[in-house]
What does this fold into?
Amino acid sequence: MAAEPEADEALIARYAGGEVAAFDALYRRHEIRIWRYLQRNIADRALAEELMQEVWLAVARDAGRYRPTAPFVTWLFTVARNRLIDARRRQRRYLSLDALAEEGAPMPEALVTAPAAGPLGVAVSEDAARAVARALDELPHEQRDAFLLQAEGELSVEEVAAVTGSSFETAKSRLRYARSKLRALLEAYA
Amino acid sequence: MSEHTPGPEEEAQLDALYQRLSRRQAEGPSEAMRRAILSGAREIARARREPSWQAWLVRLRDSCGRPAVFGTLAAGIVAALLLVPLRQLPMDAPELALPQEVAVDIRAQSAPEVELKKSQVPADALLPVPVDKPTEHKPDDARVASAVLEETVVTRAAATTARAAPAPAAVPAPPPAPRVQGADGGRDLPGGMVSADSATNAAARRAAAPAVTATTTAAAGDPGVALRRAAAAGDPAQVVVLIRAHAPLDEPDAQGRTALMLAVMARDQESVRLLLDAGANPNTTDAGGLRPMDLAAGDPVILQLLRGHGAH
It folds into this structure.
């Protein structure tokens, strides 16, 4: 029987104690979730990578101060969200999906569905990705934030509530409204 | 657009559609970035193992390397060099005595705490007391705070109204309220006073913005709520006024977040400093278990401020 994977909280405590391998394990465990959350919010890959580095180095620097009063993943996404807010203020490059959604504008590679074979497949993929970008852009900021934390960060409703500083009911309601609007906006692709 | 609320099955269908349409190649950042992050984490772990005095020197060197910090330090040293000799002069030196009219103003205060000072302290010892000391409760402060609160309520509510209801003239105006009431249904603001002018003007402005709901007015009129809003909005000017008006510093919102936490989340160093200096608790925990130190992760300036005020 496979051993239970070590909890995030134990790994970050080990890293704070000097075990570098524990950080590697944490990073590999959460890399994709954080990356997708950042990448979906920041269309610019270079900026997303910069933020990715800032987030993880902040985690490394502050590991000694982390206390398991909150789940590690909540803390991690709080750091990531704060970095996004800083980046929006700093550069005003917060996912300008209006620009992305313009016909003919090239979609960032990472936002496009793995293309089907042939030029038609690529066109369909790009069209779908643009429709998703447009639909997300039409959501109110809070709904969009909650939805991306869940859809890309794979957070539970409780975790979304903790990261966004809202109540469970508020987070749940935002997610419901976001899904309802997305469903209507993406109906043509269903 | 449909406002239909999806059930669990529809939610799952939407999630599947979203994943299908937006599924990205299952790759993370570039390998170079991954290596940079892991190598940075190794460096940080190594630095943490260094003797503390070495780490302190590294931090000092890093801090001094930043132009803003270096400039502040240099200005502080120059100011200290200029001011120390002045403070060593006798207090009765004529060039240091406060103008007579200021002294008269201080002694003329009728508030009880000022009276107490007058009876206990020699009159000339009152001269160096800063007139604008923020921790002392002064009726003027409360009046200013109340006026600012009124202003905030009306301005923000009017903005909301302007967005929500473009034709306010069609709605009858509510009767003007003579005093600002708290969210708990009747508690007055600290100081409990609004100048007649500000109350009248605020009532007139309220009449011009009739769609303001009772909830909005009550919530914004509560000093605790107002302080949290100012902190979340990164508005240190409002924060300082509300601190002077004795707004409750550590009153949490429904999610357990205090004004300090919200200021940290807003990355507003000035509000964080003001709240900490005023005595806000840096070790509170919100409903999700996060502390101000957790929320400040990655911001060395705010972390330093928090640590300097006993956060752990």
About this structure: Residues 1-95 of chain A form a domain with the Rna Polymerase Sigma Factor; Chain: A fold (CATH 1.10.1740.10). The first helix of chain A runs from residue 8 to 16. Chain A touches chain B through 72 residues (CB under 8 Å). The CA atoms of residues 3 and 53 of chain A lie 31 Å apart.
